[in-house]
Specification:
Layout (H helix, E strand, L loop, with lengths): L1 E6 L4 E10 L2 E11 L6 H19 L3 E5 L7 H20 L3 E5 L1 H9 L6 H11 L9 H25 L4
Parallel strand pairs: 1-4, 4-5
Antiparallel strand pairs: 1-2, 2-3
Helix pairs in contact: 1-2, 3-5, 4-5
């Protein structure tokens, strides 16, 4: 299964392709889509959309896994990230992908076994599970790969539940 992981953002949107075969994960391409702070928001959203569509066309993933929004106090930032997330979901759907969503807690649980794990623990597990030389940078890229790995773990469970008639 080829999974596109996405960590949404409007300044930096992390993406990562992960291939899962059996119980093994392998990293494909990964990186970040960035936009300049001085760009109008509409242009930033167009750039994110177009860039994701290119990645989907080139990589041909089977499914997308995107992190759900988590924010603290800044409503303006949350709205802007929400707009970028919506554009990312639209790019995936228009590219023919099913989109699965996971909370930060679910992603941490899937990778580290503990939903309150810190960012460094998640990054080290991404590095280990994908047999990478270094932790992917920027952090958004590692988070996107983590979202893809989370779906790889979860998809097997979902399929098994369907086989058993429990879902």
């Amino acid at each position: 299964m080829k999974i596109l992981g996405i960590d949404p953002g409007y300044a930096i949107l992390g993406y990562g392709i992960v291939e899962k075969t059996g119980n093994k994960f392998k990293a494909g391409s990964y990186g970040a889509i960035t936009t300049d702070a001085g760009m109008p928001m509409t242009e930033r959203l167009i750039h994110i959309y177009d860039s994701l569509r290119e990645i989907i066309e080139e990589e041909r993933p089977e499914v997308a896994s995107i992190e759900q929004l988590f924010f603290n106090n800044n409503a303006k930032t949350a709205i802007m990230v929400g707009q970028a997330r919506g554009v990312a979901v639209l790019a995936c759907v228009k590219g023919g992908l099913a989109v699965e969503e996971y909370t930060p807690l679910q992603i941490k649980q899937a990778l580290v076994g503990y939903g309150r794990a810190d960012k460094n623990q998640v990054q080290m597990m991404v590095k280990a599970l994908l047999n990478l030389k270094d932790v992917p940078k920027p952090d958004d890229t590692a988070d996107a790969l983590a979202a893809a790995i989370c779906h790889g773990h979860s998809a097997g469970t979902r399929n098994k539940l369907k086989e058993l008639g429990l879902r």
